[in-house]
Amino acid sequence: MNTAIYGLLFVVLAPLFGGLLAGVDRRVSARMQSRIGPPLLQPFYDVGKLLQKTTRQVNPVAGPLLLGHVVFMAATGALLLGGTDLIFVAFVFALAALFLILAAGSANSPYSFTGAERELIVLLASEPFFILMMAGICKVSGVSTFGDVLAYPQWVAPQLPGILIAFLIVATIKLRKSPFDISTSHHPHQELVSGLTTDMSGRLLAYVEVAHWYESAILCAFMVLLFNRSWPIGLVAFGIAYALEVLVDNSTSRAKWQLVLRSTWAATLVLCGGNVLALFVIGR
Amino acid sequence: MSSLLAFLIAFPLAVAVVLLFVTRAAVRNLIVIAASVAVAAASIAMAVTFGNGNAIFFGLPGNLALGHSLLVVEAVMTTFVVVVGLRSRRFLAPLLALTQLGLMGFMDLTGRLPEPDLGRLFWFDRLSMIMVLIIGVIGTLICLNAIGYMRDYHRSSPMIRGRRTVFFSVLFLFLAGMFGLVVANDLPLMLVFWEVTTLCSFVLIGYTRTEETVGYAFNALNMNLLGGLGFAAAIAVLANQNASLELDKLTAGPVSGIVLLAVALLAFAGITKSAQMPFSSWLLGAMYAPSPTSALLHSSTMVKAGVFLLLRLSPAMSGTNVGYLVAFVGLLTFLFASLVACTEQNTKKVLAYSTIGSLGLIGGCAGIGTPELAWVGVMIIIFHALAKGLLFLVVGTIENRLYTKDMENFDTLLSRLPLVSALALTGIAGMFIAPFGIVVAKWTAIKAFLLVPGPQGALMLVIMAFGSSLTIFYWGKLLIKILSMKKVSDYERSIERRVSRYEWLTEGALAAGVVVVTLFLGVISDKVVIPYAQSAFPKATPGIFLHIEPGMLIVMMAAVLFLPVLAIWASRHVMSDEADFYSSGRGGNADHVMGAALGGARTVTLRNYYLEGVIDGGLMFRVGTTACAALLVTMVAYGMVVR
């Protein structure tokens, strides 16, 4: 019953964490570009404003699908912290991402459709990593839930160096950072306009933002899982990883989807596959 | 012999014979309906009567010389193959069939084949029960669907000469053969049923008798006869060693020595029939047959016979090198079929590659041979039979309305055929949407692979991680197309009203089946599949099986019902303030006519990504086929050498 409370806490607190992180991100990015940047709480003001606006919908399915996106994203975190099997969590995580893709695709419009298709490609690119990461953690620790891994008396991370490096690459996708932000664009006047969110407005766009906050928090929880013996160290590790992502985001231009898919798969195959193979050959 | 069991085999056979002589459509439809209901009822009765306990053996009364009777049946079937082969000047199939007949005839007539124990000819346990239910319920639903489908099919393709008399007759012969196959315990008897299904699928695939389909039909016949030859060779090997020809004794536990060769040959037969690489091409050829044929071959019969045999052999293969080779053939088939599926545009082909992938996954589980993976294999069989049967029938329905099976022409399906879309969405949810059926199975498979010792375990995990992600991609593309919406004309709306009631009834029933099986997932697992897995591996340490928590069940039901319910709601929901999509001020409308840069208007086409330049479908197919062929040759050679 205790673990269920953690799940519930995640549902409540993760948006705060994710929103603050987005605020910090915007400030840091601004400084890198010699700007001052918005207030720290700007992401919350934005979502508040979005919720007040009139929502213009192009069809009736987008709303429920995006609600599904938020709910399943929150559920992923809740299941993770609530003590559900880690590999199952990886599958629910992919399902949550799928709902956003379906919502964008349903608009039947050129920009949204292309964004949705590209998001599907990045899902294809990133999903093998998450399955192998969970498998690696389970193999090293011999247990399969969040709580049990944290209670495992040895460090998990040192045995998963390949997976740690691959995490940085795949996080670029999940955080929608350049060069892997092929499905969206936060900057105007680009080839994709606003990618998969082009035809979303008002309340719907707020759902997407909140879901993304959950997504960031889930990634952070994954990092804590890797640094299982001390969650503050996990948080710091995530902070460093995030800072690297922001730096890369501001210093690279968007890649083509072929490069995204090839490089992510190659990294997953070599780094994660090699890491898992080593675990099986050398044994515990 | 139980009268129910006799009925299940003899009654569809009798119906098949009767249907051959009924040429009036109305009479034929009545017979098909009545017979389907009777067969479905009998299969349920069989499950209720005998399915709650452990294995039961049935025999035949009296002391007839079964061996010689089987030989006569085989001779008749061989004659058929020889006649059709010579008539179309294709000689490989007759050669294979004659070789098999020669082998079996030699064994039998020289007294090398022991007379079977008449009391143990048939074996009915929980696995047979599941198979009987799948064949009896899903198989007959497909027969009913065919009534409506075939009428529209011939209406829309008038140049194809109707042979519906033969078509429906063969459907029932197929059911009889399948029932016999899944309850047979004596291997020579099973071989006869095995070849019955081979011949039935040959006739069904070649239904339209065009040059193209006849080619595919012979391809299917050749590959499956090759498998049948492997089956016969396995019988010869066992008989030569005076080993038991009873399946239950053969599969009581891990085998070694020459018996392992027999098991390898039987597994080879199972791999051909379940269309795993390198034998996938026959199932792809079956796409050109009418949709009920595809549905039948893919969901409840034929390929399921192949994986059924592999699952039966699983305890015998457990921990042996033959088992690992079978496992890698299956897993590589899963990976490469999924890669190819991502590059396919023909919806039926995507479904076909998805079937091949799922079958590979079952084969992979069977080859490793642990109770947990046997559980996974059976779970995939159940969900795949329901969902894939449904999807093929739905795609058939769409094809008969929109005259296309190209995925690119499915856009805005939700606006045009809302209820059909809801059925398709149920099927897709059943096949893959995260925490349901097959995904539960994939998840358990990953957990089981974690326990496989040595580098094999790591390879299995990597294959699974990539293969599973690929399935998300190709299903996702299909979902995007189906779920997109636009304003439709009254004419487009009216198309759906022309779907026949047979199609509504059968596809609705299968969709309901998907939902009901999800709801009772825990019960089915606890009461049927787990006991089966434990009884198949009595010596293994009691498996740690998945316990389906209530929380998980809620997530699963939500995942499976969400999209279909949303689809039905959205199609009835009128939006007062529906906006046009954003088009950079170029006046995009529902038909995608947009202003061009230098004036004028252009139509924009939204086309899925097929990963051109990154994944070459043809190359992937060849690589997978070659790799699996090499593994199979190694497997048989290993079986011959190892003592």
Instruction: Tell me the count of domains of chain A.
Output: 1
Task: Show unreliable segments of chain A.
Answer: none
Shape of chain A: globular
Share of helix of chain B, binned: over 70%
Order of helices and strands of chain A: HHHHHHHHHH
Helix tally of chain B? 25
Approximate strand percentage of chain B: under 5%
Number of helices of chain A: 10
User: What is the β-strand count of chain A?
Assistant: 0
Structural account:
The complex is a heterodimer of chains A (284) and B (643). The mean pLDDT of chain A is 89. Chain A has 284 residues and is mainly alpha-helical. Chain A has one domain. The longest helix of chain A has 32 residues, at 110-141. Helices cover 73% and strands 0% of the residues of chain A. In chain A, helix 1 runs parallel beside helix 9, helix 5 runs antiparallel to helix 7 (161-174) and helix 5 runs parallel beside helix 10. With 643 residues, chain B is mainly alpha-helical. Chain B has one domain. Helices cover 71% and strands 2% of the residues of chain B. Chain B is built from 25 helices and four strands. Chain B has a two-stranded antiparallel ribbon with strand order 1-2. In chain B, strands 3-4 form a two-stranded antiparallel ribbon. In chain B, strand 3 (593-595) and strand 4 (601-603) form a beta hairpin. In chain B, helix 6 runs antiparallel to helix 7. Chain B starts with a helix and ends with a helix. At the A-B interface, helix 3, helix 4, helix 5 and helix 10 of A face helix 19, helix 20 and helix 24 of B.
List the helices and strands and how they pair.
The complex is a heterodimer of chains A (284) and B (643).
Chain A: H1 2-32, H2 42-52, H3 62-81, H4 86-106, H5 110-141, H6 146-151, H7 161-174, H8 202-226, H9 231-251, H10 257-282
Helix pairs in contact in A: 1-3, 1-8, 1-9, 2-8, 3-4, 3-8, 4-5, 5-7, 5-10, 7-10, 8-9
Chain B: H1 3-20, H2 25-50, E1 56-58, H3 66-87, H4 92-109, E2 122-124, H5 126-156, H6 164-183, H7 187-205, H8 211-240, H9 247-250, H10 258-273, H11 281-285, H12 291-300, H13 303-317, H14 321-342, H15 347-368, H16 371-402, H17 413-416, H18 418-431, H19 437-449, H20 455-483, H21 490-494, H22 501-519, H23 521-536, H24 550-572, E3 593-595, E4 601-603, H25 617-641
Antiparallel strand pairs in B: 1-2, 3-4
Helix pairs in contact in B: 1-2, 1-6, 2-5, 3-4, 3-7, 4-8, 5-6, 5-12, 5-16, 5-22, 6-7, 7-8, 8-10, 10-13, 10-14, 10-25, 12-16, 13-15, 13-16, 14-15, 14-20, 14-25, 15-16, 16-18, 16-19, 16-22, 16-23, 18-20, 18-22, 18-24
